[in-house]
Amino acid sequence: MAGGEEEGAAAGTETESEAVVEELRSFKDLGVTDVLCEACDQLGWKVPTKIQVEAIPVALQGRDVIGLAETGSGKTGAFALPILQALLETPQRLFALVLTPTRELAFQISEQFEALGSSIGVQTTVIVGGIDTMSQSLALAKKPHVIIATPGRLVDHLENTKGFNLRALKFLVMDEADRILNMDFETEVDKILKVIPRDRKTFLFSATMTKKVQKLQRAALKNPVKCAVSSKYQTVEKLQQYYIFIPSKFKDSYLVYILNELAGNSFMIFCSTCNNTQRTALLLRNLGFTAIPLHGQMSQNKRLGSLNKFKAKARSILLATDVASRGLDIPHVDVVINFDIPTHSKDYIHRVGRTARAGRSGKSITFVTQYDVELFQRIEHLIGKKLPAFPMQEEEVMMLTERVAEAQRIARMELREQGEKKRSRNDNDDDTEEAIGVRNKVAGGKKKKRKAF
Ligand code: AMP
What's this model's pTM, rounded to 2 decimal places? Predict the structure, then answer.
């Protein structure tokens, strides 16, 4: 690993980093300038998080940083504050580029930059797929201070947008680098690295240190300092993790039972495919739950719309594929349900990382059917503990089956109708909300949180 010695010296052990947290209690102590300290204060950031304590001082000293931090750790602030501070010292257009794997993450990062940098007039532009390239070219022509981009679309602009280049760039951030590389953005990242100055600062953030990330680190970082705030596959302490072992054919009934048992909470439910996400959302809506889907087959606008409704608490249940399992800034998830068990055990960590954030407590419940035992054992092995079973009254679940079967039937019909409608309109958008609204009546669903029936 390049820069191994320096990393070793700077990384510190858990105990050392605790000591640092004790000593440094404010953003000011970390070297953050007054105007940015005020911005943190306005956001309600009273004290820096662990990754901020570790990364900000070294970044302010001008070092490259590798940040190994779990979701919700405050890593965006850890790279945004040093960049904004450098921008204040030497104002310049096209100053920083943040690469991130998904569109949702890009918007969230941009929001944080704008919130922290509002008093200093920072301008950001988000460059992601699924959005009109023309308006993006115009935004780039205005030369924002910070560009937040997914690699594919940025390369598009670097190759095709006249007058746009990143030859004066001072900072490169690769956020969720492991995921960028897993999504096969390697070629795009290489292309980007070739057209930005070598003389720049680079921050690489990743939840896990994979071989690909190590390779990227060697290629892109100079003499970096490693800031790790948690061991590799640890799940947070305040997270209560459960499993339920159930026959596959009763999954829907068990889901409804749990949603009723834990009514009043906000839920994130993970499904393995777009189709199942959509189907389950329809099913739950038919039973009177305020459920909303988020998956890759929805248009960008609909995805953001779903997320915003959930964030604003207009919906209490978000159903998502793994597209949404990492990095999304959803502060109020009380319960994560792995309705379909993740095929890659590491996704388990990312999924359950949606709850129990920022010191709050949370629950996760993983559905294990007769087909999932091996995958579940792998998860237990990865997190290094045996999970308890979630307590349930089987008879109560069985009392739900008839009603659930009826809702399943209607959901299947709706899915079919939506498919036909889509084909006839040749429209790739997703119509879930409108479509469901009508059919809610069919199932006699009530929009109450408590006991859907
Ligand atoms: P991130 O890990 O960057 O996605 O941040 C997760 C959440 O933590 C975001 O909602 C941030 O606004 C919030 N956050 C970041 N830093 C702090 C802090 N020092 N104190 C409180 N909240 C924070």
Answer: 0.59
